[in-house]
Design a protein that fits this description.
4 domains; mainly alpha; single chain; 18 helices; Recoverin, domain 1
């Protein structure tokens, strides 16, 4: 009996395999039979066209996780997907508008469940009461404040300087701007950068990087270069920032805040003066993110060098100075000794000449050592 049953199963299996083989050999599609096209795939594709930011590449996967099991409740699955995007991800508002226009769903806007008019203290975020903030606690507060997950995660990572996945009280206080000059520039660019999906606190290089006439201070023109540098740093991949792109009045307002003695120049002590309130902390950075319109225009979306003619030599020089200043800001952030300043007037030819001379010296030294060794062997 068992032998007959096994033989029957074997015949049925072989028949199925043969049928699939015949269809495949005749170029007949088999996907429709075993993997039917889902209605959700096309709808997810249309919705994900609205997505942008750091999570855009995974949008289709996220949509599938909400809809694959919602066979008989597809609209509910899509609503859950869109709600998560609108509340917790950059660019979610556009997806919400698209979904509400094309689908029979209505996504409630995110309403803050915490006070976003004042920055949270560490113990307000630390609901586990262990004296530190972990990523789960940070995200929970971010959700309550309607801050996108990707922004909360970046602020958390910036604050977590020792990378132990916890924010200590010391780390909580040190993220963000430190000086009055940095805070003034951050305030000046607040509206310009509020649509940026990347966390960027101002980290200003030393004053000397902008002091073109080497008089020990910054006049308004030199200070505007400091503002433009921060805009260039935030707008990744851009060669330069035009004067017309600087928010009207922003640079002057920032200058007046830092020039406390009103002499028309920002001296070194004013440039390095600590912020009056002790500088920004993690709570203030989260508050700033909560107040920002994350669907405003992203500075990174502005035209870049790819859409323009090849940059002139002067533009390359500008970009070189930007790179120097960015490096100086990075080193200053970690209190690392800076490399000796190299003038931007040096050319590639100078660099090649120095390398050639170095190699020539090395060859001569090697030749002398080789000659001394031969003389020693002969002796």
């Amino acid at each position: 009996m068992a032998g007959a049953l096994f033989a029957g199963i074997l015949v049925l299996t072989c028949s199925s395999v043969a049928a699939v083989s015949r269809r495949s050999s005749n170029n007949e599609p088999t996907k429709g039979e075993y993997y039917p096209d889902r209605e959700s795939i096309k709808k997810c594709e249309e919705l994900c066209k609205q997505d942008r930011g750091l999570d855009a590449e995974t949008c289709a996967t996220e949509c599938a996780t909400h809809t694959d099991v919602a066979t008989h409740h597809l609209n509910q699955g899509l609503e859950g997907m869109v709600r998560d995007e609108a509340h917790n991800e950059q660019g979610g508002k556009k997806m919400e508008e698209k979904a509400e226009a094309d689908l029979p769903i209505d996504v409630a806007d995110c309403t803050p469940m915490v006070d976003i008019d004042s920055p949270p203290k560490l113990d307000e975020i630390d609901y586990k009461r262990d004296g530190v903030i972990d990523q789960e606690e940070a995200r929970e507060w971010g959700h309550k404040a309607c801050v996108p997950d990707e922004m909360t995660d970046q602020i958390f990572s910036q604050a977590d300087t020792n990378q132990d996945d916890k924010i200590s009280p010391e780390e909580f206080e040190t993220v963000g701007e430190d000086t009055a000059h940095e805070e003034a520039i951050d305030k000046a660019l607040e509206k310009h950068s509020e649509g940026d999906d990347e966390f960027n606190s101002v980290q200003a290089p030393p004053l000397e990087e902008f002091d073109e006439n080497n008089d020990g201070g910054l006049d308004k023109e030199e200070h505007e270069e400091a503002v433009k540098f921060e805009m260039e740093r935030r707008g990744e991949g851009r060669w330069s920032v035009d004067d017309s792109e600087v928010p009207e009045g922003a640079a002057d307002e920032a200058f007046d805040k830092v020039d406390t003695d009103g002499d028309g120049q920002i001296e070194g002590d004013e440039y390095e003066e600590s912020a009056e309130d002790g500088g920004s902390n993690m709570g203030e950075e989260i508050k700033e993110a909560a107040e920002a319109d994350e669907d405003a225009k992203d500075p990174d979306d502005l035209p870049t060098a790819d859409a323009a003619p090849a940059p002139a030599a002067s533009m390359l020089s500008t970009r070189f100075k930007v790179a120097q200043r960015d490096e100086a800001a990075f080193l200053r952030r970690f209190n690392t000794p800076q490399r000796k300043h190299v003038s931007h007037k040096r050319t590639v030819g100078h660099a090649f000449a120095e390398v050639a001379r170095k190699h020539q010296r090395q060859r001569r030294a090697a030749s002398r050592r080789h000659g001394a060794f031969r003389r020693h062997r002969a002796a």
